[in-house]
Design a protein that fits this description.
With 403 residues, this protein is α/β, with parallel strands linked by helices. It is built from 15 helices and 14 strands. The chain has helices spanning 66-79, 111-119, 128-141, 161-164, 170-175, 185-199, 251-259, 265-274, 277-282, 287-295, 299-323, 333-338, 340-346, 359-363, 388-399; strands spanning 10-15, 20-25, 32-39, 46-52, 55-61, 91-96, 107-108, 147-151, 207-213, 217-223, 226-230, 328-332, 370-371, 380-383. α1 (66-79) packs across α3 and α10 packs across α11 (299-323). The two termini are 15 Å apart. Residues 1-5 have low confidence and may be disordered.
C-alpha cells in the first residue's frame, strides 16, 4: 500500500448470510467509483450486478461462497478498465453487526479481532458469521490492504445503564452478556450529525430523535450528540414493527408458543424474525405494495399499517419525554425517506408539542436533506437520506490515517 493521500478510496463490504454489497467510495468527497450487489450466494443460481462509469453490468451464475462473489466483482472491475487490487485503496471497511462489549470503535482487523468477533457471534447468529465470511474473503483477495471493522452497535456503547439494563437476574445477565446493545448505529450517528450540520447547529447542543425506517427499523434519542436510548436491544428484534420482525412483544408469548402451540426454538426464531411484522400481519413487507393494498381497500394491510404507526408514535412520545427538549426529528432509510404518509401519520396531532408538518414540503421527493416542518414549528422535522457506506468509509480511512 502506498502512503495514504487525503482522499484515497475505500472498499466498503457488507456481507449478509447470502448476499454481498460493496462500494468503492472516496471518503472525503463521497464520490462513488463503483458499487455492486451479489444475491443468493450459495444457491444454484446466484445474481450479481455491478455499476461503474455510469454503466451497470449483471450476471447470473453459481456463486459458491462470498469469495467467489468478490472474485466475480473483481472481474467486473477489470472489464471496466480498472484493477481493484491496484486501485490505491487505503482500506477495506467492513460492516459488522454486533460488537458486544468488546468493540465500540473502528477496529483494525487482526487474527485476534477475527477470533473475538467469532466468539461473540452467538449474540448475532444470523449476522456476524456472514460478516466474518466477507472479512476473510476480502483479506484473501486483498492481503496488502488494511481491513477495518465498523460495528453497528458501537454508537450505542455508552447508553446509560438505566436504558441498557434488562430487569432480569443480574448474575445471569452478566454471565451471558445480556443487555441492550442497539443497532443501525452507523446510520443514527451519520444522520444525527448531518441533521445538525443542515440546521447550522452545534452537534453537542442539539437534542434529536432519529427514525431509521427500512425493512429493519429503529429509533434513537440523542442528547447533545450522546445517545441515551434506542429501540433495538440485545438483538435487532426488539422495538419498532419492521418488515418481517415483530418488534416489541410480551416474552410470555414465546413461552406460550412453545408450551401450547408446540413450536420449537428455531421455529419461534423463524416466526419472529422472518414471518412477523408487516409480512405477518398483511402478507407483504414491501411498503410500496402495502400502500397499494391499502388504497385497494385491503383490511389486513390497513390494520398492519395502523399497528406500525401506533408503535412508532409510542417511541416518539417516550423519547420526547426522555429528552425533555427536542430540537429536531429526522426520518431516514427506505421507508422514512420515501413514505410521506408514515411521516405525516406518525407526527399527526402533535401541534401542542411544537411539531407541525408542512403538507406540501412533506410530499416532495428528493435525495437531498430537506425540511418538512413549517417555518414556525418549534421542533424541526427533517428527511435526511442515510449513507452508511460513506460513514463506514470515513471511519475506516480515519483509522488508517488517510483522513
Amino acid at each position: 500500500m502506498s502512503n495514504p493521500t487525503s482522499d484515497q478510496p475505500v472498499l466498503v463490504v457488507n456481507a449478509g448470510s447470502s448476499s454481498l454489497k460493496y462500494q468503492v467510495v472516496h471518503p472525503l468527497s463521497g464520490d462513488v467509483v463503483a458499487e455492486g450487489l451479489a444475491e443468493r450466494i450459495g444457491e444454484k443460481q446466484s445474481a450479481i450486478s455491478h455499476t461503474q462509469n455510469g454503466h451497470t453490468d449483471s450476471d447470473e451464475l453459481p456463486l459458491a461462497d462470498h469469495g467467489a462473489a468478490i472474485a466475480r466483482a473483481l472481474d467486473f472491475f477489470a472489464a471496466n478498465g480498472s484493477d481493484i487490487a491496484n486501485a490505491d485503496l487505503c482500506a477495506v471497511g467492513h460492516r459488522v453487526v454486533h460488537g458486544g462489549r468488546s468493540f465500540y470503535r473502528p477496529t483494525l482487523i487482526t487474527p485476534e479481532v477475527v477470533a473475538e468477533i467469532e466468539r461473540i457471534s452467538p449474540l448475532a447468529p444470523l449476522h456476524n458469521p456472514a460478516n466474518l465470511i466477507g472479512i476473510r474473503a476480502a483479506q484473501e483477495l486483498l492481503p496488502d490492504v488494511p481491513s477495518v471493522a465498523i460495528f453497528d452497535t458501537a454508537f450505542f456503547h455508552g447508553l446509560p445503564d438505566a436504558a441498557a439494563t434488562y430487569a432480569i437476574d443480574r448474575d445471569v445477565a452478566a454471565a451471558h452478556a445480556i443487555r441492550r446493545y442497539g443497532f443501525h448505529g452507523t446510520s443514527h450517528e451519520y444522520v444525527s450529525k448531518a441533521a445538525a450540520e443542515f440546521l447550522g447547529r452545534s452537534y453537542g447542543d442539539t437534542n434529536q430523535i432519529v427514525l431509521h425506517l427500512g425493512n429493519g427499523a429503529s429509533a434513537s434519542a440523542i442528547d447533545g450528540g450522546n445517545p441515551i436510548d434506542t429501540s433495538m436491544g440485545m438483538t435487532p428484534l426488539e422495538g419498532l414493527v419492521m418488515g418481517t420482525r415483530s418488534g416489541d412483544l410480551d416474552p410470555g408469548l414465546i413461552l406460550h408458543l412453545n408450551r401450547v402451540a408446540g413450536l420449537g426454538v428455531d421455529e419461534i426464531d423463524m416466526l419472529l424474525n422472518k414471518q412477523s411484522g408487516l409480512k405477518g400481519l398483511a402478507g407483504e413487507n414491501d411498503f410500496r405494495t402495502l400502500t397499494a393494498s391499502i388504497e385497494q381497500g385491503d383490511a389486513n394491510a390497513r390494520a398492519a399499517y395502523d399497528v406500525y404507526i401506533h408503535r412508532l408514535r409510542r417511541y416518539i412520545g417516550a423519547y420526547m419525554i426522555e429528552l425533555g427538549r427536542v430540537d429536531v426529528i429526522s426520518f431516514t432509510a427506505g421507508v422514512g425517506e420515501n413514505a410521506a404518509s408514515v411521516r405525516a401519520d406518525s407526527l399527526a396531532k402533535l401541534d401542542n408539542y411544537g411539531i407541525v408538518i408542512d403538507t406540501e414540503r412533506n410530499a416532495v421527493r428528493s435525495k437531498e436533506p430537506r425540511r418538512i416542518s413549517t417555518d414556525g414549528s418549534p421542533v424541526t422535522v427533517l428527511v435526511v437520506p442515510t449513507n452508511e457506506e460513506l460513514a463506514i468509509a470515513r471511519q475506516a480511512a480515519a483509522l488508517v490515517g488517510a483522513l
